[in-house]
Amino acid sequence: MSSIIPTPIARQPWSMLIPLILLTCFGSAVLYSAAGGNLSPFADTHLLRFAIFMVVALVISTFSRDFAKFAAYPAYVVILIMLVAVEAAGAIGGGSQRWLEVGPIRIQPSELMKPAVALALARFYDTLPTGMFSSWRALLPAGVIITMPVLLVLMQPDLGTALAILFSGAVVMFLAGLPMSWFLAAGAAAAVAVPLAYNFALKPYQQRRVTTFMDPESDPLGSGYHITQSKIAIGSGGFAGKGFNEGSQSHLQYLPEPHTDFVFATMAEEWGFLGGLFVLVAFGLILHWGLSVARNAQNRFDRLLAAGMVATMFFYIAINLMMVMGMAPVVGIPLPFMSHGGSSMMTNMMCLGALMMVYRWNTQGRGGGLVQS
């Protein structure tokens, strides 16, 4: 078969690419239905964005280890400056100030910061001597790298993205080998800080999301409406669903945001348990491949970079699925490769591009130069 299939095609990680392509195409079918049986405005742009960012991911996969290390800190600083610019002159939408607009281009820097934090932390711990991993030198700089963007994102306000940055950063720190006692202490401090943050840091609408998550039926037509309708849509799908393009919750506009945050509920109503199982298996295969890339990494930098990218994608997937099923507060996190939205597609494809880059390093065993064949 190697003589039939060109080498550049044969060496691609098809165990990840096949479920990724199938999942994205399935997502476009769900978006087609969410638009009332039309390719526009969701399904066609979804596929176009996937194609564009797949090219971006393939370009990222060609970078060398030396270039990735060199770019880690400059990329982080540039995106941090962009976050500051959002606070000064960012575009406002939906009550939040999250975007920078330059002509027709609209970009959300907080999305770029998710992989950037993982890359910067991987670079930091790669250069830190092993003997310092139990000292403050392993904690303070990394804490600054995580805290600065988290605070800027919370000011937008965007709790979901701030938590995603915090989660991926914490995973990289944990896998770097910092003392377990530090994480236990951080967990205890978080338990004390949660009620304080709820009362003094969260906006009123964010507080309502937390209380609604605990008891959505207390206000089914108000703050609990999103979760209530999502549960109805998922439950009504049954085993095999109502049929493609036959979902009443989304078509009759009972289900809010059927093409973005609650796309899984839109899918489950029409495709039922079988559709949900397909989505979970596809995500499982993609994440399993990512973890295998991290396990097979040749050094600390590669391992931490790959693990940080997997953690970023996992947070997206886990929180969105828990959110639409009423197991987590509604925090506005889309479902990767299925929800309509350029920022989410960009972030997750960049994470996959970085994983494909480490995968190539693993298989080739070398990393010199900017781009390698």
Structural write-up:
The protein has 373 residues and is mainly alpha-helical. The protein has one domain (12-362). The chain contains 14 helices and three strands. The protein has helices at residues 7-10, 14-34, 43-60, 65-89, 109-127, 140-154, 159-176, 180-200, 204-214, 225-236, 248-251, 263-295, 300-324, 342-364; strands at 91-93, 96-102, 105-107. The chain has a three-stranded antiparallel sheet, covered by helices on one side.
Distance between the termini: 21 Å
Helix content: 55-70%
Specify the number of helices: 14
Which word captures the global form? globular
Notable features of this structure?
single chain, 373 residues, mainly alpha
Fold blueprint:
Elements: H1 7-10, H2 14-34, H3 43-60, H4 65-89, E1 91-93, E2 96-102, E3 105-107, H5 109-127, H6 140-154, H7 159-176, H8 180-200, H9 204-214, H10 225-236, H11 248-251, H12 263-295, H13 300-324, H14 342-364
Antiparallel strand pairs: 1-2, 2-3
Helix pairs in contact: 2-3, 2-12, 3-14, 4-5, 4-6, 5-6, 5-7, 5-13, 5-14, 6-7, 7-13, 10-12, 12-13, 13-14
Give a nutshell description of this structure:
With 373 residues, this protein is mostly helical. It is built from 14 helices and three strands. The protein has helices at 7-10, 14-34, 43-60, 65-89, 109-127, 140-154, 159-176, 180-200, 204-214, 225-236, 248-251, 263-295, 300-324, 342-364; strands spanning 91-93, 96-102, 105-107.
